[in-house]
Structures are given as structure tokens and as C-alpha cells.
Amino acid sequence: MIFISLQDQYWKESTTEGSVITTSTIYENLWMSCASDSTGIYNCRDFPSLFALPGYIQASRALMIASIVFGTFGLVATLVGMKCSKIGGENYVLKGRIAAIGGCLFLLQGISTMIAISWYAANITEQFFDQFYPGTKYEIGEGLYIGWSSAVLAICGGACLMCACKLNTPKEKIPYPYQPSSRGRLPPTVVMSPSASTNYDRNAYV
Questions:
Q1: b/e per residue 8-35 (b: at least 16 CB within 10 A)
Q2: Positive or negative, the Cα torsion across 73, 74, 79, 83?
């Protein structure tokens, strides 16, 4: 879903607030700007220069690319760490740790996406409610809602995966020093004197 959100062209869409006649609609994402008229004809152009873009767009690009990288490695680690997978042998302790790493990567993916989407949406709302902003005002597009949904799912999935691996971790055995109980000890040997044994022999068959 994050890849779908990244490819969606409707991250922000020009608003019709205060306009009586609307002849064209402008919509943008992180990579291009498009315009469509009332007849349905649209034209898109890529942003010409990376360094000419505002800082929040550059940061959002970097965070979205990082989230895709985190998600790819998290998916690989989760598949390797599954018990039904034959990759990695039958060492379930090691597989559980690998699955926990996959959950951590999913958490990083969701956090990166959430920061990028929220930062982009905050700039849209700031320009929209600024009465002295001279440029075109935009509204939040559908691509941001897809990004928020995918970020929440990634965070929940990563947290559930890490909690499941935490619960399935075997408990460490604590060594205790061996202390033999007193019940198993032999009673002290009673040394009988020769006279006592002689008396016992005489009185044995009375």
C-alpha cells in the first residue's frame, strides 16, 4: 500500500474555495505536477530540479524511499523467520529473533511513512488557512489517506510480530547450586563395644 500511495498522483489537489468558475484542476505528488481541464484532457510534468523543490518535499521523498527499503527487508526477514519456512533450518530460537527483526523493520517503515505523510499534509493545511498566501491553495488528496492507512497497518503489524516473538521466546534456565537434602544422608554409625555384643549374643536365644 505504501508503494501505491507513492505512485498516486493526488497527494494534493487544487481547491475550488472562493472560485466561481473552475476551468482546470491542478494536482501534485512528490514527483510531478498535473493539470486537467473540464473536458478531461490532462497534462503532467516532472519537477525539473531536485534542489529547487521545497525542503519538506525532499525530506518526504527520502522518508518514503526509506520506508520502502525497510518494508522490503522486513518482508524478507519475516518470511525467513516463519516456522513453516525451511530457510534457516529448524533453529526456532534463531528464526524467532529474525522474525522480531522483521517486525522492527515494519515499525520503522510505518514511522517513516507517517512522518512523511503528516509533514506533507501539515504544509498543505498551513498554506490553506494562511490568508496572505499568494499562491494556489490545495486540499489533501487521496494519496495521503492511503499513506496514513498503510502506515497504521505497518505499525500494527510490526508491533504484533514483535509481541508474538517475545511471547514465544523460551525462558532461560537459572542454574541453582546443588544442595543435598538431609533425608538422604546415612545415620552416623554406632560403634558397639565388644562386651555389649557378647551380652546380646548370649541373650539372643532365651
A1: bbbbbbbbeeeeeeeeebebbbbeeebe
A2: positive
Q: Residue 142: is its pLDDT beyond 60?
A: yes
Dump pLDDT digits (tens) for 60-70: 999 999 999 99
Euclidean distance between CA atoms 5 and 43, whole angstroms: 20
Among residues 67, 58, 12, which one has the least CA distance to residue 35? 12
Question: What is the dihedral sign for C-alpha 62, 77, 3, 113?
Answer: negative
Q: Are 2 and 125 in contact (CB under 8 A)?
A: no
Q: Could you tell me how many residues make up the chain?
A: 206
pTM of the entire predicted model: 0.71
Q: How far is CA 112 from the centre of its chain?
A: 10
- Distance (Å, rounded) from C-alpha 17 to C-alpha 19? 6
168, three cell numbers: 514465544
CA proximity to 117, closest of 137, 135, 141: 141
Q: What cell was used for 62?
A: 527520502
Residue pLDDT, tens place only, 99-141: 889 999 999 999 999 999 999 999 999 888 888 888 788 889 8
